[in-house]
Amino acid sequence: MKQRLRKYSAILVISIKDAINFRAELLLWTVIDAMPLVAILALWLRAFESAPDIGGFTRATIVSYYLVGYIFQDMTGAHFEETSIREIRDGSIAKYLLKPFSLQIGLVVRELGWRLMTFLVTGIPFMLLLVMFAPNVLKLPTPGQLLILLYILVFAYLLDCLYSLFIVAMGFVIEEAESLSHLKWMLGWLFSGSMLPFEMMPGWLAKLSSVLPFQFRYYIPVEIYLGKIEGFAIVRALAMQMIWVAVLSSALVLIWNRNLKRFTAVGS
């Protein structure tokens, strides 16, 4: 057990060092990812010129919703599937499969280094700027909210890693499996609340979004932060999140093992 922990710790350290070397690229991608956010906020601010309240949101709360959601989404994303699929295609993935540790856990830990650096390089400065120049937009969570948010965001990150691992698992049997990354992005955008808060969605879409796991990266943590989800509703959300983690983890084990048996490495 200690040996495995040392191995995963070494993977994390290497990942952080790589992220430090590419910190300028991290900053660039953060700016690129922020462009749609700027456009969305501009549209909403224009809409609030003619109405003080839309769907239970004021101008201040809708701005908070998207800015805080952007931070949470940036902290919990996983993007290792395309690199892993290229390694499957050229056969270099075999060297990891032969090592005495879990490739799945290794990928999750390796991505964690990039998430930590993203938070340090972009997340913290972004939040400090908001606190300094827009104190009414970003408020500090209470200690209780902070603990709940940390819990939800950790497992939101794990859920996003599970989606990516499903795509990697398909890479063992489908040559162009990286195209599934676009499906992952589309489903997340549609059902997470990053397109629209659930309160403003059509009824059928809001109901469907409220039972799918994508909501835990955006809508649920933001609503808890805003104080719109409290008490038993938080307990129910935490329970639902854990159920999704258990279901998807079990399904991943079955699919990963089945597809891995059909994989043959050719190359380096």
List keywords for this structure.
268 residues; ABC transporter permease; globular; membrane; mainly alpha; ABC-2_transporter-like
3D architecture notes:
The protein is mainly α and 268 residues long. The chain has one domain (2-260). It contains eleven helices and no strands. The chain has helices at 2-21, 23-47, 59-75, 81-90, 94-97, 103-133, 143-171, 180-191, 203-209, 219-225, 232-260. α2 packs antiparallel against α3 and α7 runs antiparallel to α10 (219-225). The two termini are 30 Å apart.
How many domains? Answer: 1
Approximate shape? globular
Helical/strand content category = mainly alpha
- Mean pLDDT over the residues: 86
Protein name: ABC transporter permease
Keywords: Membrane, Transmembrane, Transmembrane helix
Transmembrane segments: 26-48, 54-72, 112-134, 146-174, 186-206, 233-256
InterPro entries: ABC-2_transporter-like (IPR010390)
Produce the secondary structure layout:
Elements: H1 2-21, H2 23-47, H3 59-75, H4 81-90, H5 94-97, H6 103-133, H7 143-171, H8 180-191, H9 203-209, H10 219-225, H11 232-260
Helix pairs in contact: 1-6, 2-3, 2-6, 3-10, 4-7, 7-10, 7-11
Short overview:
With 268 residues, this protein is mainly α. It is built from eleven helices and no strands. The protein has one domain (2-260).
